Here is the input.
Amino acid sequence: DVKVTQSSRYLVKRTGEKVFLECVQDMDHENMFWYRQDPGLGLRLIYFSYDVKMKEKGDIPEGYSVSREKKERFSLILESASTNQTSMYLCASRGLTGEQYFGPGTRLTVT
Amino acid sequence: RKEVEQDPGPFNVPEGATVAFNCTYSNSASQSFFWYRQDCRKEPKLLMSVYSSGNEDGRFTAQLNRASQYISLLIRDSKLSDSATYLCVVTFNNAGNMLTFGGGTRLMVKP
Here is the structure.
């Protein structure tokens, strides 16, 4: 079974803090993704990576950056957290036939 | 117009009922199609891929109609445990890297 893990299930941060969300997959997948999910807005793609050190912006990259130093690990960084970044953050990796496998999610609250 | 549209529901059905969801997509160049299931406050999980010829997995049947640009999911003999949100997912770009999610259809199966 594909395993995608995320560093935290719940996180509370203050406005202006730098926040790191980490994601690890164990299936040697090349493509990894970060989404946020908000009520009424569904899943929105923030960034994705198709190889080590490679990254592409998704639909809503503003206020975020990413890092992919190793194939199995994809990090999402909130440079200066704001209250409108309170959300559920989901990491995913892509299998051979295009399907994506999600981690359990990190529920981030910014106060 | 959204790229992937679903009726948000909720669909309230009794146990044992048959229920069907449709999903329409706007891009005729869409490549791959999936149904995901998402339980409350959990991550989306792949339910099934949707193939051009249609496919079945136990009580679940998925169909693709490229001419009319929609996919469907049929659930027979509904169980209480089928209660969840069902997400229609489509890939648009040639590499199949990026998924576009519908807003989801909520199903509630009642005793």
Q: What stands out?
A: Chain B has a mean pLDDT of 91. The two ends of chain B are 37 Å apart (CA to CA). The CA atoms of residues 14 and 49 of chain B lie 26 Å apart. Chain B has no helices and eleven strands.
